[in-house]
């Protein structure tokens, strides 16, 4: 009104007033054009699929407004669940296709209320707050699509987080009614509380065909490796209680147990440990003398003394996480949030996100039968390592446990990494905190990456007195295109290396380093002359390798071997003149959690100059010591990091009948 009045008062002074019939004509014409544009836009952008019109979101649709779906008794029920399912057998990766962002697209089914023939809902709780938060997080993420035809993964809006609230048969029938179900192919279900009394199965009992299961209590018997995703049991206290991050270090208590519903045999054993170790162990239980109105879930007691929970967890270095009726326990999340190192006693339990998370860095896993030895085991862990584990535990919680959003996004990223492995997150990205104070870190797991000063790799050749063999090795290595420098480590203090004029003439720089002591570990020393990130460590008698085989694969961990090898392993190697290669494999396997990759076929070892006098491996005690050193190294590491692998990486066209000039690595030896 104000605007029209203003312009009408000034109109006569500015422009002549239009005739009424002309004004009506232009207004009518403008209205027709405007309506045409609106209609065109609606037709252009309005979804053309019934399924894609129902964009998920509780802000747009109330649960009570969701359509009611009745389930006839005769409706089909999915199969129980195929334990043999793997990504290559039960998942259609072709649905995902190629996209520049290497990201799967996830579709969430429209919200519906399922009831049986007499109107009883399939769930006693409907849509829980936790599942609502999970679906909202997915719909707000870059994974989400509202176009069902573009979807790679389908998430039902049927809440199966807590099996206790479900009617098993009817829930299965509801899943089978989903338009794109197709025997569960490419469908993802989230469940945190599986099973029920008396058996408490470790996986969701709802028949689900081939659907993937993100489950919170898997055992080794029910977990389908590389298909299912083991997720944590979310703790409601995460949203209700804010625990400020505490600096790693000694705490008031050494061990704390806070669970209230543990088996009587476990509690009896914990009480015995308490008697033996006194104040170092705090054994809490539920409170029976609380005032009316006090929330019992937020309190724990010991002999009448009341403690706030989960705040008390921050007062202990280690916190016990025992199996209950279910393997997965929300206590694990509370413990991680407190920055307390979880001591997990739950045989066969698949730890959350263990496909990508290295739990050795944040927890101690002890067999249930070793509970009586728990105190002794934990006392053997160095203080600095405990501090690093405390820091890692808190970071695990912040990154992967702190909310339903964090749990959901981690689950989808793991599945995404399987489908687009060439763009997958690395071990370091999954396990290294983004900000680490290097000055306070002593573990090789947190070493900063040092950018290389030169491209290519440096070949480090350890030698003693085998000149002819050494020169043959140098000549072959010099043919490798990526060789940046060749470093000869002269390990003989009683004899000088050959004169400069006698050495092979090669294109790459060649430098001889004379050592002060004859040590096998000298081959792994980070010499100043090494300016590349990649290093090839090789002995002077490895003459059977070709330049193509050397070019095809190499790796680098010298700094870790020299300065961060745990215990007295390096001294043991130097004293026995044996097992330096095994020590390096222990180190790399422990850091990466991966098995070695064999990159060339097996050949017979030949060394013309090797004799029983100067060949270490020809000594009768040599192989006996190598067996002993494996046991020695395993005891120092506290575990056996070496992994069994049946894999060999060969170049493309390796055995194909193609002209040699078409092959990138034609000089790869045969078996």
From TrEMBL:
BP GO terms, sorted: heparan sulfate proteoglycan biosynthetic process
Glycosyl transferase domain boundaries: 555-654
> Chaperone among the record's keywords?
no
| Transmembrane region(s) | 24-46
Q: How does it sit in the membrane?
A: Single-pass type II membrane protein
One GO cellular-component annotation of the UniProt record comes to: endoplasmic reticulum membrane
One protein family per Pfam: Exostosin_GT47
UniProt keyword terms in alphabetical order:
Coiled coil, Disulfide bond, Endoplasmic reticulum, Membrane, Transferase, Transmembrane, Transmembrane helix
* Coarse class of the protein's main subcellular location: endoplasmic reticulum
The coiled-coil segments of this chain are 256-283
Do the record's keywords include Transcription regulation?
Answer: no
Q: Where does it live in the cell?
A: Endoplasmic reticulum membrane
Cite the InterPro entries for this sequence. Answer: Exostosin, Exostosin_GT47, GT64_dom, Nucleotide-diphossugar_trans
- Residues covered by the Exostosin GT47 domain: 101-381
Q: Could you cite one Gene Ontology molecular function of this protein?
A: glycosyltransferase activity
Give the family per the record: Belongs to the glycosyltransferase 47 family.
- Name of the featured protein: Exostosin glycosyltransferase 2
Gene source species: Oncorhynchus mykiss (Rainbow trout)
